[in-house]
Amino acid sequence: MSKVRSDSKKSFGLDVNGPVFWPSIVILVLSIALVLIFREGAEAFFSDIQASVTSNMGWLFILSVNIFVAYCLFLAFGRFGSIRLGGRDAKPEFSTGSWFAMLFSAGMGIGLLFWSVAEPINHFQTPPLGEPGTPAAARQAMNFTFLHWGFHAWAIYAMVALSLAFFTYNRQLPLTVRSAFYPFLGERIHGIIGDIIDILAVIATLFGLATSLGLGVKQVAAGLNHVFPAIVNDITTQIILIAIITGIATVSVVTGVDKGVRILSEWNIRIALVVLLAVLFLGPTVFILGSYVQNTGYYIGSFMQLSFWNEAYSNNNWQGAWTVFYWAWWISWAPFVGIFIARVSKGRTIKEFVLGVLIAPSLLSFLWMTVFGSTALREVLAGNTAVAEAVAADVSTALFVFFEQLPLSTVLSVIGIILIAGFFVTSSDSGSLVVVSLTSGGRPDPSVGTRVFWALSGGAIAAVLLVGGGLQALQTAVIITGLPFAIILLLMCYSLYKGLSEELEEETKLGSAQQRKDYQQLMAEMLAKRAQKQDAKAQQARTDISLPPKAEKL
Amino acid sequence: MIAIDAMMVCLDLSDIDEKLVVFTRSICERLQVGKVYFVHNIKAYELSEDFREWFGDVDLAGEVEGNIHDIVSEQFGNAAAYEVLVSEEPNTEVILADLVKRYKVKLTLLGKKSSDRSTGALGTKLLHILPCSVLVFPETAIFNIEKVLVPIDFSDTSVHALKLSKNLSDQLGLQLEILHVYRLPTQYFPLISEDKAVRKAEEIVKGRFAGLQKKHRETAGVPYTLVRAANKSIAERIRLHLDKGKHDLLVLGLKGNNPLPTLSFGGVPKEIYNMDMHIPLWLVYSEEVIR
User: Fold this and answer.
1) Considering CB atoms only, which of A97, A515, A526 is closest to B187?
2) Is the predicted ipTM greater than 0.90, yes or no?
């Protein structure tokens, strides 16, 4: 476990950071109560704000995420690349495989399962540019899917995680969002401003988690019902699913990152690879491999144009509903995923970190999207409309309808459900650990009671919102937090740059000062030694001259 | 018979210089060395104005050369033909690489201090750019060498290192051991029993050893050990094996199987170089293999 400073104090007998823990609880309870009371009104209110944010502030999101990608590459391949998180001698806490499994499972696993089939089909049917239902629309659909799940999304996570990891491990600050603002705020991060930043992060994380869990179990239940019609998709099934997922997540959180979370994440990745390879080999293998190469090339080729495209000359709000929505969504999840990735990344160099958090998961996401998305598009282009109809009817069953087009569909569907549940558990446990870290002032080893409390809270909030309604309203509210967080993240970029520059400057100064001192000392010692030797020689010569000649010599 | 046409010894004016010169003598007495170049590059930019004022208009190059001559005449004698070279270039690694090319140097001897006394940054740069084999001599190493360890990954360069170690051992009557560290990607095959996977992996490696011994008959009698990397890096495993086996010299091929060493997270020789070791490390560079 890393040795870091924490802001934890005893509050009402609990091992928590009171100024963050208690206000978070009050805001959570109040928000849930208000949403439950003004259910439909709240949903309409937040939807209006979200529409306004995505249509008016889209340019800011687009600009910000591009800055994050460029910034991450600059950090990795520039002069900061060799800085190690945790100092020069720090060693990674987890093997590279476990590290990658954990960050991928926490960051994106679940979304890939639901959207890998549905999103390309959606873009194919309603493309932002050109005619729908054509091969050109299919190419464009994959291109936009890559855009939404590729470098930009991971750059957001990488930037936040890197910033938090740096200030935690290299500056010995608590593992909380406030620490990333140390170069701006100095010691004030331990005061009220820091508390507000952390409270915001707690609320965004917990609501993001609870709403995902609530909406997610609806999808799992729909999938279960599709595969096993005997299982009814009703509120009871959904509550039972929440209880099971929360139960496993609680055990995982109690056992800690190096046991429960790591083992579950590794198994998720294994199962995901099995599903990926199964679809690759049971499906049109040569087509998939060919389209992977083509999709990636097409994405790289149109990267700049696509990344900065802003629908500036059209009245269509396609981008607001998709691209900008995604950017806001990833940004609102960034405090959670960022803290978690930071937690497991000690001992990595910045270059290694960016390769592992930005490049590798993007390439895996591309492969995943191609295997599922391109295959689905191929079916539709060949005249098989089953998958397209499933997407239009219910996104959550699209994956299972897709499996039905392949041999061994029941086996694949069962593995798919296990995988979905697995990714939910890993999102839930890592999210709970993040909230625990935030509310305990970044304590590296928070008490079991606090861990259990937050793990169960996530499930309880999801269940309450599921029964009482308001999941959609709260999820929309969370996405809206993407806007202030985008600005916070931009400040974080500057803050991290300042911190890294100071670190590098200190390292270089120390190194060169020491080197200069050492070399000067060596040179001085050598010159002194030589002078002594020459003196001794001169004295010897003088003594030889002054001595009277010996008789034998004469 | 190992013959070294030209050898370069990099001196830094510290205490380690005498040890390096003595070690060079012992090499020259045992192997056939054509000529030795004792070199030092004066880092003029590291000397402050105060230093220059204090020492006045002293001829630094002359003093350094005199100092090296003193050490060499005391510790090296006439073990082989030698020349002292002193330069005043801004970039030490560039001038050293240039000397290697100019004098067709086959082996460079570098001293190495422990990590708390030196960053080792220059050494790491030299490993990257010197187009010759490098022998690293830690300040704590002893001159007596009896047991040699040569880890191999079956790449052409590591086989070249093995052949050189075998020649060296035959010539000097040393004990040679081969080490192969293998990895099992168990995370991708969780359902396969670990014992079974280890057995299978060892069978495969033994098959490769049999193939190697068939192809290079001179290596047939050399004992070899298989070690699983498990949760450690290959370099860490080699280090543990060295500690256990009490070896006195480690020989490694300077470029292994990895075709993209600069993109990897750190090559084995580089990682081993950065460890605090107490035995000499011979990093073998084969022009023919690289070509």
Assistant:
1) A97
2) no
